[in-house]
Amino acid sequence: AEIGRQALDEKAESSLTPINFQSMQDRVYEEITAGLMRGNFEPGQQVSSRKLARALGTSEMPVRNALGRLLAEHALTRNGNGTFSIPLIGKARFREVMELRALLERQATIQACGRVEAAGFSNLRKCASGLSLAIRLNRIGDYLDFNQRLKFTIYGYTPSATLRAHIRLLWLQAGPALHFLSRDLRQMRIINFHEEAIAALSSGDAEAAGEAVSND
């Protein structure tokens, strides 16, 4: 009987999938990163590991790990009391970041052209529809969300991991300021080129697609 119980215990244990702590850390990091890129945090805002852990439904340990990584990427600053804040960014620095974004994201789009498959185009069109609706309804949060999703869907098809990494770092620096620069989305209709970018990618016109994303 004892042998039988032991066999059952071993069978039950073998059917369980081990929880990978590193994957939890990565998920928390990616969630906070996405929030920074989409303007969910404000420049100068203090960031609490306790509050983030509560919002994410995790312990503080993976949150602290994520904040440490973001500090190393200059997406956060450390205060004198050991807390973290979203960096302030001046006009000149913001302009520099956006100019670099235009250059790198143009190149990433050119490289992505011809690599996007049907599922990718379906996702891009859903994001484009969400963007258009957000503009009509002046929903800034939705606009920034769909804009980030659309752009990074495109960049996911570039074969250059280095290019993707640099774009990501620039988005981390610019993201918190974008919410303040998008107060009235109705004024942004004339500077939205996401439909042109998707059309150019669909037709295989890499230069036109890159130019549309750069303009956007």
Please name the defining characteristics of this protein.
single chain; 216 residues; mainly alpha; 10 helices; 68% helix
Describe the structure.
The protein is mostly helical and 216 residues long. It has ten helices and three strands, in the order ααβααββαααααα. Strands 1-3-2 form a three-stranded antiparallel sheet. Strand 2 and strand 3 form a beta hairpin. The protein is globular and about 55 Å long. The termini are far apart.
Which helices and strands occur, and which strands form pairs?
Layout (H helix, E strand, L loop, with lengths): L1 H13 L6 H17 L8 E2 L1 H8 L3 H13 L4 E2 L5 E2 L5 H22 L5 H20 L2 H16 L5 H18 L15 H10 L2 H10 L1
Antiparallel strand pairs: 1-3, 2-3
Helix pairs in contact: 2-4, 2-8, 3-4, 5-8, 5-10, 6-7, 6-9, 9-10
Instruction: Give me the secondary-structure category.
Output: mainly alpha
Helix content: 55-70%
The geometry reads as: globular
Largest sheet: 3 strands, antiparallel
Distance, first to last CA = 71 Å
- Beta percentage is under 5%
Q: For the CA atoms, what is the radius of gyration?
A: 21 Å
Strands of the biggest beta sheet: in what spatial order? 1-3-2
Give me the count of strands: 3
Give the helix tally: 10
Show unreliable segments: none
Give the averaged pLDDT, no decimals. 88
Run of helices and strands: HHEHHEEHHHHHH
